[in-house]
Amino acid sequence: MGKPQFVLRRAMKRARPERCHGIGRACAAVLLLAGLAMPAFGQFTAQNVSNIWNDFNATFYAPSGSYGYYAWDQGGSYDSNDRWENAEMIEMATDCYIAAPTTQNENMLTALVNGFDHSYGTDWTSDKYNDDIMWSVLVNARAYMAIYNETKTVNSSMITWANDASNNFCWVYNGGHSPNRVNPQYDSTLGGGMWWTNNSNPSTGTKNACVNGPGALAGFYLGLIYTNAEFTIMASNMISWETAKLIEPDGLLYDHITASGLASGDYSYNAGTYVGAAGFLGLGYPEKVAAYFTNFYCSNALLPNYGTGGGNNDGFNGIFLRWVGTYEILSGSTNWDNFFKNQAAAAWADTNASGLSWDDWASATPSSGLYSWDCSPSVVALQWAQIAQNPGTALAPLQETLTMTTTNGQLQLTWLYGTLESATNIFGPYQNVAGASSPYAAPTSAGQQFYRVQEN
Fold first, then answer.
1. Maximum separation of any 2 CA atoms in the chain, in Å
2. How many CB atoms lie within 10 A of CB 295?
3. What residues does each domain of the chain span?
4. Which stretches within 254-332 are classed as H helix?
5. pTM to 2 decimals?
């Protein structure tokens, strides 16, 4: 009989949208993590986690009516030109809501997403960078899932977020949207993958980790919102291409590929989005990629400093911590506990008198001239150190996420919460799998099967 087929699905209330191949280093990379020297930076407390978030907002949060924004620098104002950085600072706010799902944090997150969408409108395709659009989709979809997972309600703002996210994701992935995304941005050139920009000329265009990683995450979250397998398939296409074309067997992740070949540059944000998406989808080598990066790019057990002048790269490390933290909870691994504590302790130890901490944790944070983007990784570091220690049931969308792995040729399904259901047709009807508990060894003699986890 053929192998069973799988689809990641979730039953919930829905919105209505429109190479050198150095294999010998692979095991070494995983083993080195356990022995990575961890210098002492002191301790941090739950109050520190709250304080660093509150102090960041006291300096940079700039509401305008019902909309929320972050000022670009101390004493400055919101800058809509910094689109992807603005998106990622809202991701920081989602992290803080997951760590502390209070009404105040929910209201601030809602205002920030509404402000973001108000700033950029409903059609984001005038931006030539496909990664900017994927980061924006991820903002809306992840905030939706975080609030839904905690409140089990869907309000009008959330429906708008989901509509905008799904429309723009499909316009970029599938094309057919005039005038700015007529051509599909995911195509078979260079073996698949999504183009970095809307320049899909094979001789001059590039396909990058920075668009396929967040694109896969965006597709995964949309698949949860709409319980639509097509989004999950598109997400899987992107992460499978990234695995096949940009990753060495030891976990090295190249930045991009062109018609001339691979381009070097293993950056923390690319590693982070790959680890998160691969972990959610049960594909690729998330552990190897995370371990390789920390073992070969960390200095004195700290993530690398990408700059402190408000530059494009300065907030990379917050993205790495967010998605490796998500993977740690998803996989049940404890390999990263000390690593997270170490980053958080270093970030907290670097706070200045105003409670701000920039991303160069080996140097003292100055009292002035700071940028919000540069200070965001420190906020993320403390949130994820706390979430990793106490995940509870607040981490959307892990509760009913269904993942597949293969162990010694046996297909295995794992999930954290909910009831496993199966059907012979993707559209159902689905029935409970009698006696199933996680991990579940899926029978290979059952023919075509589709599985999902139903919320209890």
1. 67
2. 18
3. 21-396, 402-456
4. 268-281, 286-297, 316-331
5. 0.82
Q: Which residue has the tokens 């609030």?
A: 147
Give the integer Cα–Cα distance in Å for 15 and 2: 35
| Kind and range of the H or E run holding 394 | none
Q: In terms of DSSP H, where are the helices of 11-129?
A: 24-35, 46-60, 83-99, 103-120
Predicted confidence (pLDDT) at residue 394 exceeds the cutoff of 70: no
CA dist 54 and 99 (Å) reads 13
Tell me the residue length of the chain. Answer: 456
List of E strands, 144-301? 207-208, 256-258, 261-263
State CA 184 to chain mean position distance: 23
Percent of the chain surpassing pLDDT 90: 67
Contact 422, 431 (CB under 8 A): yes
Between CA 376 and CA 315 the distance in angstroms is 6
Of residues 71, 89, 16, 6, the one with CA closest to residue 426: 6
Q: How many CA atoms lie within 13 A of 288 on its CB side?
A: 19
What is the C-alpha separation between 193 and 237, in angstroms, rounded?
7
Output the six-digit token pair for 313: 């790269």
Q: ω into residue 391 within 30 of 0, thus cis?
A: no
| Tens digits of residue pLDDT in 317-344 | 999 999 999 998 888 778 888 899 999 9
Q: Please give the helix or strand (H or E) that residue 453 lies within, else none.
A: strand 450-454
Give pLDDT tens digits for 333-384: 788 888 999 999 999 999 999 999 999 999 999 999 999 999 999 999 999 9
What is the rounded CA–CA span in Å between residue 91 and residue 448? 38
SS3 195: strand
Contacts of 260 (CB under 8 A, 6+ apart): none
Pick among 3.30.200.20, 1.10.3720.10, 1.50.10.20, 3.90.650.10: CATH of 21-396: 1.50.10.20
| Residue whose token pair is 């047709």 | 425
Cα distances (angstroms) measured from residue 91 to each of 18, 85, 318: 24, 10, 9
Distance of CA 166 to the CA centre of its chain: 17
User: What is the spatial distance between Cα 360 and Cα 380, in angstroms, rounded to a whole number?
Assistant: 14
CB atoms within 10 A of CB 44: 22
- Which tokens go with 373? 């983007």
Of the candidates 212, 22, 56, 249, the residue with the CA atom closest to the CA atom of residue 134:
212
Q: How many C-alpha atoms does 84 have within 13 Å on its Cβ side?
A: 20
